[in-house]
Amino acid sequence: MTIEKIRKDYELIDLFCNLAEVPSPSMHEEKVAEWIKNYCDKNEISCKLDDFGNVVINIPATDQTKAPMMLSAHMDVIGDDSPVKTYLDENDNIHAEGRTLGGDDKAGVANALLFAKELAHSDMKHGGLEVMFTRDEENNLSGIRNANLKNFNSKYVLVLDSDTLGQCEISGASYTLAKFKVHSFKGGHSGIDIGDKKRANAAKLIADLISDLPQGVFYEEDGHVVTSCNIGGISAGDIKVTNIINTDAQANYSIRSSSRKKEEELKSKMTLTVDEFNIKNKEIAKATVEFEEHLPPFEKVDDDYIPTIFEVAANKVGVKPDITSFHAGAETHIYANKTNANDEKFIPYLIGLATVCNMHSKNEYLEYKTILKGHELLTELFKEYNKQG
């Protein structure tokens, strides 16, 4: 079996390889966006680029009594703009020679793009399909952050960016930076002034503060981590200089939580720890903490309609469904905290329509049979969805 053979046999594999072979590092997606636009024009699919360069596709409803669905995937990949040459290994896995493949997330783009083409030329009665391919997901989600989501009518969004076939992820963790600072009122010389009890070393003081702060899992539910924190680094003086009683020190923590309530509980505990530190050390130092939210939580909702029909569709096509949560960030988090054209809050899910291994590395590969099965799953899921109404 060769890459040429499976590209000839399967339109989806050929589409994926064509997309993968257009380099698209973050904020340099213009060529792949142009490729997608040309593909849509050739296949008479309504397609445009928004003001930020995201690609937007719309397949109009053929049955106004049904609700539309939205698919989302990102065009950028980890890697540079060097050429991409795909090949098939002895285990039927697709690689790129000497670099990242870009299966994250060209697999999602390919699946959505082919499905849009098929739907546009089918006689199926449906409520419409909205598709967005975003820029710069890997860097700081600027594509989805700058998209005008008020232009979309769908309530349910399938973000096709999970790395395992059959996954339907119903919640994901926020990312908040907690910045702790300690200022000692009096520093000095580590020899001459060391006996002065009113001189305190900020490095020692922040170590004391850290020892009282939580670390690791803060809250879990049903075996899944919901809320956690992790110390990322400590700064105090110059590691090469030991003759100074340091006056300033800092420690940065990451907070991740798929529950806004539990995150606030953790932040309150951290703030209380700082308050207690300040009472204990009021004569010699002061500590502060600041919280910076970089990504809001993607919280689980009571509406289980999509997970329910996802399981039905997966079982029909012979895929094992895995309804789960993930303790990291994705575009789902932005959708979950925004509203559509009808002022309804989006309900997103992170969906796996292919298995991509060793993502973001030169050893990345796509198990090609999984993307074919994923397309069956997407098609069946859309059919189940349009049984409504």
User: What structural category characterises the helix and strand content?
Assistant: alpha+beta
The strand count comes to: 19
Distance separating the two termini = 45 Å
Q: Tell me the helix content.
A: 25-40%
Main β-sheet, spatial strand arrangement: 1-2-6-3-7-17-8-16
Number of discrete helical segments: 10
CATH topology of the largest domain: Aminopeptidase
Radius of gyration: 25 Å
| Residue windows where pLDDT falls under 50 for at least 5 positions | none
Itemize the secondary structure elements and their pairings.
Layout: H1 3-9, H2 11-20, H3 30-42, E1 46-49, E2 55-59, E3 69-74, E4 86-88, E5 93-96, H4 103-120, E6 129-134, H5 142-145, E7 156-159, E8 167-172, E9 175-184, E10 188-189, H6 202-212, E11 216-221, E12 224-235, E13 244-245, E14 248-257, H7 260-280, E15 285-295, H8 305-317, E16 322-326, H9 332-335, E17 347-351, E18 356-357, E19 365-367, H10 368-385
Parallel strand pairs: 3-6, 3-7, 7-17, 8-16
Antiparallel strand pairs: 1-2, 2-6, 4-5, 5-19, 8-17, 9-14, 9-15, 10-13, 11-12, 12-14, 18-19
Helix pairs in contact: 1-2, 2-4, 4-10, 8-10
Written overview of the protein:
This protein has about 400 residues and is of the alpha+beta class. The chain folds into two domains: about 5-170 and about 300-385, Aminopeptidase; about 175-295, 2-Layer Sandwich (Alpha-Beta Plaits), CATH 3.30.70. It is about 30% helix and about 25% strand. The chain contains ten helices and 19 strands. The strands form four sheets. It has an eight-stranded mixed sheet with strand order 1-2-6-3-7-17-8-16. α4 crosses α10. The mean pLDDT is about 95.
